Amino acid sequence: MATDTTLQEAFVAAEKYGVKLIVCEFAMKVYGVSMDSINPYIKGTPNAHKYLFQLQERGYNTLSI
To answer: Taking the CA of residue 23 as centre, how many other CA atoms within 13 Å lie in the half-sphere pointing to its CB?
Structure first.
């Protein structure tokens, strides 16, 4: 998903509807993936668990895959 260029249309549609794709930079580091190597639509956060808790505190619903 991170490098598949055929998904560009899906990223455009997701952005149109306010969907954000966030990845855990810590996990990416563990798996040897750099932020520079993924689609620029996908944003990073240093710690996904902390990010999810912060969103939930602000009243957001979250979906983790």
So the answer is: 20
Residue 14 to residue 19: CA distance in whole angstroms: 5
Beta bridge partners of 24: 45
Phi and psi angles of residue 26, each rounded to the nearest 5 degrees, phi first: -65, -50
Is residue 45 within 8 A of residue 26, CB to CB? The reply is no
Instruction: Let me know how many helices (H) and strands (E) the chain has, helices first.
Output: 3, 2
CB-based contact 28:35 (threshold 8 Å): yes
If you ran DSSP here, which 8-state letter would residue 59 be given? T
The per-residue pLDDT for range 6-44, each reduced to its tens digit, is 888 888 899 899 988 889 999 999 999 999 988 888 899
Q: Report helix, strand or coil for 31.
A: coil
Q: What is the pTM of this model?
A: 0.73
